[in-house]
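Model the whole thing, not chain by chain.
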Amino acid sequence: MVTRKLNVGLLGCGTVGRGLVELVARNHTLIRQRTGVELAITRILVRDAGKERPGVERNLLTTHPEKVIDNGCDLVVELIGGIEPARALIQRSLARSKHVVTANKALLALDGFSIMKAAEIQKVRLGFEASVCGGIPIIRALRNGLVGNQIHSLRGILNGTCNYILTRMTEDRVDFNDALAEAQAKGFAEADPTLDIDGHDAAQKLKILAELAFHAHVPAQAVLVEGIRHITADDIQAARELGYVIKHIAAAECSGDCMSLQVHPVLLPGKHQLAGIRDENNAVLVRGDAVGEMVFSGKGAGSLPSASAVLSDVVDIACHQGGFSASQGKVLDTHAPDDHGKHYLRFPVDDPSAIAAITTVLERNGIGIARAAAVWAKSASAQNQVRVLTQDCLRSTVETSLRDISASGVEKGQGIALRVMD
Amino acid sequence: MVTRKLNVGLLGCGTVGRGLVELVARNHTLIRQRTGVELAITRILVRDAGKERPGVERNLLTTHPEKVIDNGCDLVVELIGGIEPARALIQRSLARSKHVVTANKALLALDGFSIMKAAEIQKVRLGFEASVCGGIPIIRALRNGLVGNQIHSLRGILNGTCNYILTRMTEDRVDFNDALAEAQAKGFAEADPTLDIDGHDAAQKLKILAELAFHAHVPAQAVLVEGIRHITADDIQAARELGYVIKHIAAAECSGDCMSLQVHPVLLPGKHQLAGIRDENNAVLVRGDAVGEMVFSGKGAGSLPSASAVLSDVVDIACHQGGFSASQGKVLDTHAPDDHGKHYLRFPVDDPSAIAAITTVLERNGIGIARAAAVWAKSASAQNQVRVLTQDCLRSTVETSLRDISASGVEKGQGIALRVMD
């Protein structure tokens, strides 16, 4: 494969910026092997070049934006956030025919179309996978993976802080304020959590997703926004008694030439696909005319997940500048999987009191028993059985034990052993 | 946006082929608006040109492969399946510098590397999103979205028939044979279901995913395969009593220079992210060093989901042949979302016997009551409350009723109304 070098100029070196520097350092060889793209971060714009940044080479730092944008870079990554100076620097980069990758949801929600238009005019590409749901490739799914679908609706858990708070309130039965304090202590929630818990962060993300999904402009005021401050532990308990969980859902629907967008706490049936999304995780349920319902879930924020999304855009742009890449296999060893773990064993027997003989064999072979049951058949067509849930043990020992038990003659047929996966 | 025409030659017109023809006919305008790509299927290879194919133009059909491959097409879609003649036709297409999109998992599992290599040498692209998990963009996620990650493991529910059978056995407590017969009656399972229920279909898919994820060659014999024929309804019930569900899981792990691959029925904890994947749905849980755990789920097979995946590859290749595309918004109306539905209402009150006054207001306004409760506070700091779960009703009527109840003076604070989403 031909290797192409891609010089990346980085604007901003906060949480996600440092994550990007770390991930490029860690995985650039892997990326070159997979794609033929050799990435190099050539300059980094910071406000204070003197600040300590572990893992970041100090001689890459500059406080002059033009040194990043003009320094022979092929692509500019904007991770400053907020409206200005991010917007001006992106526009300047586009005007100089640099590809741009950004994680800036506030800017895209405010002014996405004019930035996309500027990129189109300059015939450069704009990547913004990291602007919504961190490492989950939902932008890519809407732009590419589902491009042949009419998207009828989106429903998402788009704010990790709200989901963390509601999960704690649900599972630990704590109050909103305690759950918020915990989220802040764990670093999910900002010191000023207003944007998160009042729903505005989710509304910005929903606007970006809906514009892609429905291929339409969404006025910001079209999104109805309700936060979660007024939800109590009692509400959650009352919902549970009715078979529901309370989740903060961002929902967009499109039907004909009409759409509706709303961010609000709702009651979801316990079996709903979004009901099981816990803690700070994000998820998006997309309904398309061809694919039906599809769910994407994972970590929606954080340094490395967001850096992963930035990197996917950078590599994507690099790959489509020129050559093509094919997967070339290295040679790995293979080994027998899962050589130990808990197991579920079932033995058909004439007499369930064979449980004594069976568990004796297992114990002799060093297999700890978590549960064991002698089961009499309830009907003539069913079999008497012995069932065992083991402690953690070697798979090979389980197989030896199955053979030993078979040889002992207490079985009436073939026993089975299924692995338990945690 | 500049419009580019892309002529597509189609090899095979079975379930997925007809789905592709239908989806292109239905959504080609939308695709052109989104991407600037104008798709046209110019020729279709079939075995019997006389057979009735509703929705397929008869004058596109031919029984001569060279008429498809050589007929001025830019890209060849292979949907014949199996090894030959699919392999020879793909090789012939690549040799003539046509891009190729295929859904052929058996061929890719057998010979994927030599086909990728041939595409690379010819500097054309090979798309195979539809080969694994139908409409779920998991190939794209591994090739692009997660390109910056070391992938540590994959765990998937990759065969819809097995998952359907296990779901029926779990939820309806039927036996394996009855569940299989139901899957066949519904068209999920083949007349000869061996490849599905013995795990070989899932093993082919796992091999394709693992080769992408670990960027390594996986020998077919490295995948240990166990099917689900030997699982009984009793096993599932016994697992449930222990807090587990039984799922047919395809698992691949990579650590250092060593990997393990296995397809087998396992016990998953009831709260596991794959435990809730029901019926014929597929899902893949990917663990990467940057993104952590991520789950993709949806319909893993079927005419339109698979056609959606084929189309995503076709459009992707077309977009990267030349120009760039930016989203251009049409103007849609917006309307207030969810104007009716069930609601959960909560009113803080001095005296819970206010339930009479509150439900009277609701009934007068035409809101049916599903459940209502007068709740006395359990502690001095808590509030007495009235809680109501309504029948389906207009949101505006709920808001009117909240105002009426507030005006009546029975409340001690502000009531809330949360929507119930089904």
